[in-house]
Amino acid sequence: xxxxxxxxxxxxxxxxxxxxxxxxxxxxxxxxxxxxxxxxxxxxxxxxxxxxxxxxxxxxxxxxxxxxxxxxxxxxxxxxxxxxxxxxxxxxxxxxxxxxxxxxxxxxxxxxxxxxxxxxxxxxxxxxxxxxxxxxxxxxxxxxxxxxxxxxxxxxxxxxxxxxxxxxxxxxxxxxxxxxxxxxxxxxxxxxxxxxxxxxxxxxxxxxxxxxxxxxxxxxxxxxxxxxxxxxxxxxxxxxxxxxxxxxxxxxxxxxxxxxxxxxxxxxxxxxxxxxxxxxxxxxxxxxxxxxxxxxxxxxxxxxxxxxxxxxxxxxxxxxxxxxxxxxxxxxxxxxxxxxxxxxxxxxxxxxxxxxxxxxxxxxxxxxxxxxxxxxxxxxxxxxxxxxxxxxxxxxxxxxxxxxxxxxxxxxxxxxxxxxxxxxxxxxxxxxxxxxxxxxxxxxxxxxxxxxxxxxxxxxxxxxxxxxxxxxxxxxxxxxxxxxxxxxxxxxxxxxxxxxxxxxxxxxxxxxxxxxxx
Length: 518
Known about the structure:
Radius of gyration: 36 Å
Strand order of the largest sheet: 3-2-1-6-5-4
Number of helices: 19
CATH topology of the largest domain: Rossmann fold
CATH architecture of the largest domain: 3-Layer(aba) Sandwich
Number of domains: 4
């Protein structure tokens, strides 16, 4: 065989696999056709450890492959770090130099001869390949010349194997970190459900019923009731618990970007798309995607989402090839989707697709017995977040005042209230939380004096047909009666039984002008 054919076929055998055992077996089989070989070994020198590491070996005679580094003597280190020829002929490994003797002893190599070839890429040594045959002086100069032809393939193969081994190690570390983070996230958001044995008992019963299945879940309830917490519980109680849990707030992403965020885009599909991007559905492969505020999703996007739910496939923006979707869908909204369907603001067919297993989460005012436990939970949580040195007590009278309040912002408002009280407690150097802001908030008596004239029982004008219109009408009439005043005993917030900040939020949401805008 001529040198070119030898180099070509030798390169194919050396580069046959990234698995070092498979590669060495193919390579040894090829070389044995041209020389009386019994084995081949890949070693690398670790300068930090001052030791030789055996990467792999294949032989048809017994050879021991040490799992630990082969530490060298001072003479061996000086020998291996000196300028040596790239190719060295060895008549007997057990007597050739301090390094060869140490390695031969560690490998339990019988009396053997062969060649040692330094492998270099761009004048940098990546390792050593050793070929050997049992007995003294078994290989000649012609065998050395053939081995020299394969220096570059050997060097590239060893470099690729080392990189592959490092990538595999990093992948294993990443998977281990992911498992740890999933467990930590589960502790934070999947297990701490206050009221699961009382106010949320029915909700959690339904959540655990549907968790083992792949059925779609629709979480309903007012803002701040804890829909995301229930979604976490469903995911982390399901067989998908070790896969991604991707959360998307459909109301927080602009209409122009939400298509790309959910389904991804191809490079060059629009101005600024400088690279391909995977969407949330692709990132949730094998796991769960939580579509929060689904009622805020634009109609144009609802059509694409419906197709994904129907076919189990999606197409990236600017893409042509369908991509399989394997993600469980949990949706949530604080809006009445049936009313939105009647108004034409939400697709009826999409609502039917999502409304497979609806779970309604009760507002905080309907489970006030959970409030004391929630307050203690948030105190412990915020003490850590605010780095406080002490945990303040709660004024026993505060619980009565807090329970009298209607909590329109639900659990989220309660959490913010606890944080605000802790900040005040720290600033005023108090040791007791009093929640004094809620002392003047009393339940609004249901009399005609506090109800706008236009929607009392005696009016001749029919009430608005839709809930948002009725709320807007009621708040506007109340503002007119209070002269636009929001805060204080005679303000609209007190009349409506709301916290002033909550009322301002509702005014902005409903588009009702107030304050300087009036």
